Amino acid sequence: MKTTIGRVIFLAICSRLLCIFISFLTNDLFSTIRNTGILHLYLDNNQNSQNTVTWKLFKSFINWDGEYYLRISYYNDYEYEHQHAFLPLYPILVNQISKIVSGINKTSILVNMIVGTIISNLAFVLASVGLYLFQCELFYKMKIKNVVFPGISTLFFLFPSSNIFNSSMYTESLYSCFNFWGAFLILKAESNSHKFGFFSIKNFIYLILSVLCMSVTCGIRSNGILNSIPLFFYFVSTSPSIKNILKFILHWSIAFIMFISTIFPFLAYLIYSYFRYCVYISESRPWCKSLIPNIYSFVQDEYWSNGIFNYWRIEKFDKFILIIPFILVTIYSIKIFFIKRSKKDKNNVFSIIYQILDHFQHCYSVFGYFFQIYFLLISILLYGYVEVIIRLFNCIPLYFTLMGYFFQNQNPKLSNLLLIYQIFTFIFGSIWFPNFLPWT
Prior knowledge:
Pfam families: Mannosyl_trans2. The chain has 19 helices and no strands. It starts with a helix and ends in an 8-residue tail after the last helix.
């Protein structure tokens, strides 16, 4: 049965309600440890008790990184240097909406908790629609007539392994929302460019909207800058011949402007941090003396211990086990889209490239998301907390396409194992995280 937008919205709402229900039901089931800093803020805000139903419900969604986002949104500023691992757009949005809701200049911590959680859940529903439209547009361009395929791919996001983070005060849902819509819009722009011409109004409307979405992702999370990769492939796809030198120069001049526009929020964040810590204080921080001062990279290395092979320890073995499905799906994508198509022309590289490009006719921007997946997998395996792959991949639209391929074309036993993994992580995370136990 073909999926519709209405069904996607309905399932997205059901998914969030199920997550909230499980979290509320199991809160404090295994652990009574709480973040005392947030609790003190809550009680200092003239709240009479920590035993209200509202507090019990929403405290499930402010653990771990959620505490940082909540504190930054409450104070509308960074208190400490290590908090700069969290980009400001999401906390600013929570802060401003909380002020509007409260009708006062400074809100209570509880209002910020409620607003932040609501934003995440609403963004999840909107992200679901954006992902479904992306899948429909992609399969239409690739001339795949399987009408249930977009629905199956979207279903993996509707009940994701990153489940609890999509309802918590994390950036997962908001980032996914703008990322999925940006991906859909860039596909539409590419289609209109080939149909009506690069300089057509329809193309520019979709292109500008897509760049706006991608730009927002750069203000939400640092990996938003990777959206410049599909944008690059879009401009490669729509580029006029160099023989028409004026159009060629204008085309790539626009590409440069769009690229800068996409990464501007992250650049603005780095510049703001530089002036705050390196110019306006007498004793500057060590990272200020770097050739390219980058507070984000410094904080990741200094406070979060990111570094090559830093996570490759025997006690972290279980974390590597946890991400095996993501590695399998990624390897499968290389096999199905690249290796399989090259068997007939083993000695002809150009023929292989042509076959691959022909398969993705008029949607070259999709290549950018392949690069995102491969780059993130390799870089996180080498440098980062490997379990974070669960959250990162669940924000890439093409990953769900690959999951759909894997699920439908693999051995039934492997497909069933993937389904079991998805259900297990959906439920397990909703129990573990609210109890302040480590979950990715």
